[in-house]
Specification:
Helix content of chain A: over 70%
Oligomer: heterodimer
Number of strands of chain A: 0
Largest sheet of chain A: none
Shape of chain B: rod-shaped
Distance between the termini of chain B: 152 Å
Structural class of chain B: alpha+beta
Strand content of chain A: under 5%
Chain lengths: 162, 410
């Protein structure tokens, strides 16, 4: 990845992080899109797995700083997701929009499941409902938002000759 | 210098492992050590993001509070808009309660469910039926006065004809029982444009008091009550208030336009009077009306009151027939149920018609009497004229006037 592509990716990731902390609270949906996950996906498929793991760790830790009870859990989850996506990029050539959407859904859902299990706020049927319904819904919304973002930003993200 | 893929792979693995270990350490970190780390992050890297989040949450809370304020305003406006209608309903219920306490017995309270179609202009649906004791031809009254008469009774509901129905008739009188007449719906003069205008006009609920003797005059604002002479409506129920006198072609009787005591469009609760209550009399329920003494009753019954009473009745019958024909034509044209309604005619009209068609009735007797008197006068004029032509011409006009006037004067 050349410098131009790197800068574009950094800018887009910054915009997505900005949206995460502005648009998300503004909408205040119960199942809202997670722009941090989208930013992580955009970055992970364009950097090495180690860098993706560090990026996931940083944004996870930043999220955890606002939730002391699960401090470290978000960092662990996003580290795993970033590293996995970056590794899978080589396997799947994840340039297809729908495949990206599927990865987004899977990544967000895995993140939600991990956070719910670590938080240990819910048990039994409530936990099951949260994982199967709300986490899935949130993952779907994130996937849709991510696909839309990818479609809109495709001209910007295209790396010529890379 | 290019690094080998193996080396970079190891580097990635090391970085990944380090991140995982750090994350695990963060999760197992004691609370005392966890909080400073989190506070450091919040104060440095996350601080601008928190500012963004706070700003956007303020925006949202401002929006939500403005929506809530708007909802509150709407709720208050809605509540304020309902206050007058609630006051009206409250007053109406109080009036109904007052009427109930005056009637004391023999009434059935009911809700008036008004239709919205053209054919329902003359009828109202009542929420009480035969299960509650409603019978056909039971009177329907409101605190203000006459509403109508029950036409159809079902177990749980009934339909009443309003006073605006074309066949509505009630014998009426003034409060001091000095003036009598027949109240019927006012139908504006038929215009070349047709009858529809009269149905749709604001005058469709007006009443007219017909057959008032010419010597009797009513002032605007005079309250007209049922006289009880017709046998259907008991005496003393307010019917309407005189607005003014109508111009009619009949010279022997007056016709007055009445504003009905009850506004049909505002009817919500009514009382249905049981027949035994009606026969028991309703004097002093609404207001004090002068008693109709037996002499007056007899005079009215014999048609003596009012020189034009009998002729007025005949005229009323003729006009009623013409009116019904016009209304039937209009009903056929409009496709409403006025024709169906006209089948359920009231007693009063039937009684008037029966009196008109009876050869022994006062109407024909009066006609025969007036015709005989006219013939006698004609014979007398003929004989006087013949005598005048046979006599010699008078030398002085004074003498002629003295002589002839005695003969001509009846």
């Amino acid at each position: 990845m050349n410098w131009s592509a790197s800068i574009r990716t950094i800018v887009l990731v910054a915009v997505l992080i900005f949206l995460h902390y502005t648009l998300r609270p503004l909408l205040a949906w119960r199942a809202s899109a997670d722009f941090l996950i989208i930013a992580l996906l955009l970055a992970s498929v364009r950097v090495r797995p180690g860098i993706a793991a560090i990026f996931g760790f940083i944004i996870g830790l930043a999220s955890d700083s606002l939730a002391i009870g699960t401090f470290g859990a978000g960092a662990l989850a996003l580290t795993l997701i970033g590293f996995t996506w970056s590794r899978l990029k080589a396997v799947f050539f994840a340039d297809h929009v729908l495949l990206n959407g599927f990865f987004l859904f899977l990544g967000k859902w895995a993140y939600e499941v991990m956070m719910n299990l670590v938080e240990r706020r819910m048990h039994g049927a409530e936990l099951l409902m949260q994982i199967l319904v709300w986490s899935s819904l949130s993952a779907a919304v994130t996937a849709v938002a991510g696909v839309l973002a990818l479609m809109l930003l495709r001209p910007v993200l295209e790396t010529r000759g890379s | 210098m290019a690094r080998s893929p193996r080396l970079t792979g190891r580097l990635d693995a090391v970085l990944f492992g380090a991140c995982v270990i750090l994350s695990l350490l963060a999760t197992v970190l004691p609370a005392k050590m966890r909080e400073p780390v989190a506070a450091t992050l919040r104060g440095s890297m996350v601080a601008p993001l928190l500012q963004l989040q706070r700003g956007s949450e303020r925006w949202r809370s401002a929006y939500v509070s403005s929506v809530r304020e708007e909802l509150k305003r709407d709720t208050l406006a809605l509540a304020a808009a309902r206050v007058p209608s609630l006051e009206i309903e409250n007053n109406r219920l109080r009036q109904i309660l007052g009427l109930g306490s005056k009637l004391q017995w023999g009434f059935i309270p009911a809700e008036a469910l008004q239709g919205r179609g053209r054919s329902e202009d003359f009828t109202i649906t009542l929420s009480a039926g035969s299960n509650a004791g409603v019978r056909e031809r039971s009177l329907v009254v409101a605190p203000e006065g006459v509403v109508g008469i029950v036409q159809t009774v079902d177990p749980s509901m009934s339909i009443a004809l309003l006073f605006a129905h074309p066949d509505f008739r009630v014998s009426a009188m003034s409060a001091d029982a000095s003036t009598f007449g027949i109240v019927q719906p006012y139908v504006p003069p038929v215009t070349p444009t047709g009858q529809e205008a009269s149905y749709l006009s604001s005058e469709r609920y007006l009443l007219e008091l017909r057959g008032v003797p010419f010597r009797s005059q009513l002032k605007a604002g005079a309250v007209i009550f049922s006289s009880g002479l017709g046998g259907v409506y008991p005496r003393g129920i307010p019917i309407g208030v005189v607005i003014g006198e109508a111009r009619t072609a009949t010279a022997w009787a007056r016709t007055y336009i009445l504003r009905p005591a009850v506004n049909p469009s505002e009817l919500s609760s009514v009382m249905i009077l049981r027949p035994e209550r009606t026969s028991g009399g309703l004097v002093n329920v609404w207001s004090d009306v002068a008693p109709v003494d037996s002499a007056t009753r007899a005079m009215v019954a014999k048609g003596i009151i009012g020189a034009g009473d009998s002729l007025a009745r005949q005229a009323a019958v003729d006009e009623s027939a013409a009116r019904r024909a016009a209304l039937d034509t209009a009903a056929r044209a409009f496709g409403d149920s006025a024709r169906r309604d006209s089948l359920g005619r009231l007693d009063s009209l039937a009684r008037v018609e029966a009196a008109a068609t009876n050869p022994d009735s006062l109407i024909l007797r009066a006609r025969r009497d007036s015709a005989a008197a006219a013939r006698a006068r004609q014979r007398r004029r003929d004989s006087v004229a013949a005598a005048a032509s046979a006599a010699p011409p008078p030398p002085r006009p004074d003498t002629v006037r003295r002589d002839t006037t005695g003969g001509i004067r009846p």
